[in-house]
Amino acid sequence: SWTAGNFVADTVARVKEQVGSDRVICGLSGGVDSSVAAALLHQAVGSQLTCIFVNNGLLRHGEAEEVQETFNENMGMDLRYIDASDRFLDGLRGVTDPETKRKTIGNEFIRVFEDAAAEIENVRWLAQGTLYPDVIESETPENRASARIKSHHNVGGLPERMNFSLVEPLRYLFKDEVRAVGLELGLPEEIIYRQPFPGPGLAIRIIGEVTPERVELLRDCDRIVLEEIHDAGLYRDIWQSFAVLTDNRTVGVMGDYRTYGYACAIRAVNSEDAMTADWVRLPYDVLARVSNRIVNEVDGVNRVVYDITSKPPGTIEWE
Ligand code: XMP
User: Fold this and answer.
1) Contact between 51 and 28 (Cβ < 8 Å)
2) Exposure of 17 by Cβ count < 10 A (0-12 exposed, 13-18 middle, 19+ buried)?
3) Residues 134/140, Cβ–Cβ less than 8 Å
4) Residues lining ligand 1, CB < 6 A?
5) What ipTM score was computed for the predicted complex, to two decimals?
6) Residue 249 host element (H or E)
7) What percent of the chain has pLDDT over 70?
8) What is its EC number (predicted)?
9) Tens digits of per-residue pLDDT, 83-108?
10) From atom 22 of ligand 1, which residue's Cα is the shortest distance away?
């Protein structure tokens, strides 16, 4: 029967044989799949592996630091941390259409990643955390049609443009198996049980233009949502929970003053596979703490609403 221990032993042996003494690179996103793929590759080929982490300026609070701490400081990996925030935010200036945001970010990511990869010599292999559902999804007509609603990360994009061979050690695994493998490899639970986070990051949770100031506003709101969800012990029971910065400004009152600030929306959903989702019946006291903290701590946001739309007809993200 399948065990994470056996899987790790077999895969390490197989990857060693496949890769030999070649160099391997791996893009780290901070998500579960790429983290487990990187840890597995590291176990197999050690210093032959270089990981590339791109900070696109659209990450959640503390994410970039956590990735560096886990992989570089704790695991001793060769991690190239690239802060390309300015490049991404420059590219997004004036962009309000959701699909244009995705394309802008996707294209910029490829350029940044290619530049970083070109600095590393003698690379033959690109490791990716592709899972079995990703493989299936890109092969069935139904899913190709549904994927067109929003242009999600495509499995094929990056390697096609580069002369690398692919190493995909998780290709036959499902999510729960990937988590078991990650725990077996000693990755922290904060990474193993992390809620999914979209590649375009905070940009598709900011309705309207993505400016550095608005990213900062949303990042603060989002941090408060996650802190309160964690404190209430709910984080692992929820598929995704986050804040959205709307482009609606509303009138409020603070002491003796009238305010005119953005409305922030809170979204929390449960789902099996992100194809359908139901909004989470969050306890009122959790919602109350989130709302109080956001309006008191985030200057520029003066109203909080809770999104009670299921998918379908709503989507999980607002864009
Ligand atoms: P929707 O909003 O379509 O989201 O219900 C379904 C799942 O996909 C994630 N998502 C994305 N992930 N790039 C990604 O990597 C994207 O452009 C993107 N758009 C949505 C979303 O967070 C949810 O888990």
Assistant:
1) yes
2) exposed
3) no
4) 102, 150, 152-153, 196, 198-200, 240, 274, 311, 315-317
5) 0.99
6) strand 240-254
7) 93
8) 6.3.5.2
9) 999 999 999 999 999 999 999 999 99
10) 198
